Amino acid sequence: MFTGIVTDIGVVESVKDHGSALRRIRIHASYDAAGIALGASIACAGPCLTVVAVGARPEGGCWFEIDAAAETLARTNVGQWKVGTRLNLERALKIGDELGGHLVSGHVDGVAEVIARDDITDKSGSSWGATAKFTIRVPRELAKYVVEKGSVALDGTSLTINSVERDVLTVLLIPHTLEVTTWGAVKAGARLHIEVDQMARYAARLAEARAEGY
After folding, report:
1. Is 107 an annotated catalytic residue?
2. 74, 160, 163, 188: the active-site residue
3. 110-208 adopts what CATH topology?
4. Is the full-model pTM beyond 0.85?
5. In the annotation, is 14 catalytic?
6. Cα dist from 86 to 8, 78, 80, whole Å
7. 193 is catalytic
């Protein structure tokens, strides 16, 4: 489990195909290699991926490798990652960790598309930087799970939904989030991993079951 609070930005260092159904990806990060065990789970731009190799980097930080199988490659953006791709990273929760965002499983529901980005500059002359409003279209089948002021995970980032109209939602990101995640470079046309709030999913299913007489 994760919270959608990004703790590092990783960079893809290499991509190697093993046959047609498996791809191994090496990612550079600032984590301590000694603290990452083989088999550990790391959310990489949203998807929960398993560490299959890890090592320290001479200049500091670590590298780790993950294997992406055919299902992951077909249903996410992982197949489009290339050398230099930047990824929001989050280590799996430990008992006692602070729950700063919302509970996220790392099981991506689909891919959403950014249809507009509006940067909002502070006219008071503040040096804190600009905020940014993103308008995002979600897959139609997921629209019923997104609600105004609810939570959503987009590319591994826990965000509060500002507004919803049919299959389009908006989120507003503060300067800090734009700086410490990959969101600073996100533009219209970008495709993002989306994981809907689990509570919204259960509530929707409960309503469906009652309507069906279960």
Report:
1. yes
2. 160
3. Elongation Factor Tu (Ef-tu); domain 3 (2.40.30)
4. yes
5. no
6. 10, 12, 12
7. no
Give the CA count within 13 Å in the CB-facing half-sphere of 40. Answer: 20
Q: Which two three-digit tokens encode residue 73?
A: 């490659």
Token pair 């069906």 is found at 212
Reply yes or no on whether 64 is catalytic.
Answer: no
- Identify the three-state secondary structure at position 78: helix
Q: Please say if 50 is a catalytic residue.
A: yes
Equal fold, 8-91 vs 110-208: yes
Every domain of the chain and the residues it spans: 8-91, 110-208
Residue range 89-146, pLDDT digits in tens: 999 988 888 878 888 999 999 999 999 999 987 666 555 678 999 999 999 999 999 9
Closest CA to 25 of 37, 36, 11: 11
Active-site position among 7, 41, 131, 170: 41
Catalytic residue among 43, 44, 48, 62: 48
Confirm whether 48 is a catalytic residue: yes
Strand partners, 104: 2
CATH ID of 8-91, from 2.40.30.20, 3.40.50.10990, 3.40.50.2300, 3.90.180.10? 2.40.30.20
The residue from 21, 56, 69, 207 that is catalytic is 69
For residue 41, indicate whether it is catalytic: yes
